[in-house]
Write a structure and sequence with these properties.
The chain is an alpha/beta fold. 40% of the residues lie in helices and 19% in strands. A 6-stranded mixed sheet has the order 8-9-7-10-11-12, sandwiched between helices. It has a 4-stranded parallel sheet with strand order 4-3-5-6, sandwiched between helices. The protein is elongated and about 95 Å long.
Length: 490
């Protein structure tokens, strides 16, 4: 098993004897130069792909639709011809950029059906091999998942390394993992993807005599590698279970004080981290690159009702997100499962908005979080024309969506109001208090945690009419005025 360490953990290449990053001299470039990549998109007949023009037209039609129309249900669901291979390749190019590579060439192969041996056919493989050699490419990236056989055959036929879509996403996750927990989760996903793709060659497949404590008599090197990887997987799962146990303890302490949790979810690069910074005043990394946020962030914010909630920024989802990632990152995504309300952040300027929404809902379904209350937020309205924004406002009002610009702060107040209304735990209630002025801590608690509708002074007493969270009003119940038992004048 070959590994190449990065800041985020191990990067593994299945069935390859070459390191993930070659020395600059071997590539003919200077040290630190980005790797050169050849991108390969594939499309199989029988699909009716939607082009960028038709998607843009559908989006414009949806924005122009009135309250009684159902144009918002224009579907680009996964597997139903949502994107053409060319449009998918555009998104794949952004992934490659996030991985730090430079695109040397692009290919688009259309076939009636996948080739079992190479996915794209021997003729196209020869063509790609020639371009990869002439452009001095370091790797060939496929916008499609490859079977172990296809991967082995392609690496034998091409002059450089071969990676598929899942391997590229795993590599980006490895680059962006900063915490110990994130690195464990990435490594687990990598090993689970690598295990069925181990291939032995030459001496590695020969029967070896073995040694006591290392390998059994007659065991092959391939079997030894599988056994070692399986042991490592078991250890990583144990470590991640410890992480989950610590998270459960932390969550139990938080639940002792009734502070609801709200989670930001959405497609990668929809602007979740920028919105998180705007709402919390934090300075987490907000980047246009995909999967810039990998490790969860948690900050407290105050709502217009003076209630406080914990806001969680989570990893973004993407089309064809590897199932191993969803499984490995379950410890991180538990914040989504435990949240009382989800804020689904969508890119209002994207022509793929409906397809991205379907992908996010698919992952939420895998997490059993699809039934949670959700606030649909249409972000990046600052990128729309004035006419598109006007149509979007009309549509959003009829469909319960909230247009915002996380960059400029437009629409954030409306989002906070909607979040206030969506919370069901610790509801807001009206109350009246009579508090002696000597009770400074009680007066401070009312000022800080409630909306004061009326305040009157009577001697040493202060009369309040307030709206506040039930938990705080309950803690101050000895100062509460019992209006039901009061005189008719009162």
């Amino acid at each position: 098993m070959n590994t190449d360490r990065t800041a985020g953990g191990k990067r593994l290449v299945a069935g390859s004897s070459r390191p993930l990053r070659q020395p600059a001299a071997a590539r003919g470039g200077r040290r630190g130069d980005p790797e050169r990549a050849v991108l390969v998109g594939v499309e199989f007949s029988g699909r009716q792909p939607a082009t960028r023009a038709t998607l843009a037209e559908a989006r414009s039609a949806a924005l122009r639709s009135g309250p009684g129309d159902d144009a918002h249900s224009v579907s680009v669901a996964p597997g139903g011809g949502a994107l053409s291979a060319r449009e998918s390749l555009d998104e794949f190019r952004e992934l490659v950029s996030s991985a730090g590579a430079q695109v040397a060439a692009e290919f688009l192969q259309r076939r009636p059906q996948p080739d079992p041996a190479t996915l794209i056919g021997s003729g196209k493989v020869e063509e790609i091999a020639g371009v990869a050699s002439s452009s001095r490419a370091d790797l060939v990236l496929f916008d499609h998942n490859l079977s172990p056989t296809q991967l082995r055959n392609l690496e034998a036929a091409l002059p450089c390394r071969v990676l598929d879509r899942t391997q590229l996403i795993l590599d980006i996750f490895a680059r962006h993992a900063r915490t110990r927990e994130g690195q464990l989760q990435v490594e687990l996903a990598q090993l689970e993807y690598l295990l069925p793709r181990l291939t032995g060659r030459g001496k590695a497949m020969s029967q070896l005599g073995g040694g006591i404590g290392t390998r059994g008599p007659g065991e092959t090197q391939l079997e030894t590698d599988r056994r070692r990887i399986q042991r490592r997987i078991d250890r990583l799962k144990s470590d991640l279970e410890s992480v989950r146990r610590v998270r459960r303890q932390q969550r139990s302490r938080r639940e002792a004080v009734p502070v609801p949790t709200v989670a930001l979810v959405g497609y990668t690069n929809a602007g979740k981290s920028t919105l998180f910074n705007t709402l919390t005043g934090a300075q987490v990394l907000a980047s246009s690159r995909m999967f810039a946020t990998l490790d969860p962030k948690l900050r407290a914010i105050e709502l217009p009702s003076r209630r406080r909630v914990l806001l969680s920024d989570t990893v973004g989802f993407i089309r064809n997100l590897p199932h191993t990632l969803v499984t490995s990152f379950r410890a991180t995504l538990e914040e989504v499962v435990q949240a009382e309300v989800l804020i689904h952040v969508r890119d209002a300027a994207s022509v793929y908005g409906d397809e991205q929404k379907a992908q996010v809902e698919q992952v939420l379904g895998e997490l059993d979080a699809l039934s949670k209350p959700r606030i649909e937020v249409l972000n990046k309205i600052d990128l729309l024309s004035s006419q598109e924004r006007a149509h979007l406002q009309d549509r959003a009002q009829s469909h319960g969506e909230i247009p915002v610009s996380a960059l400029t702060g437009e629409g954030v107040e409306a989002l906070l109001q909607a979040l206030d209304s969506a919370l069901r735990s610790d509801p807001l209630i009206d109350a009246e208090f009579i508090v002696p002025q000597s009770e400074g801590d009680v007066l401070a608690a009312i000022e800080a945690g409630m909306i004061i509708r009326r305040r009157e002074y009577e001697g040493n007493l202060v009369h309040f009419s307030v709206t506040g969270p039930a938990s705080l009003i309950g803690r101050l119940r000895r100062f509460r005025r019992r209006t039901a038992a009061a005189s008719p004048a009162t």
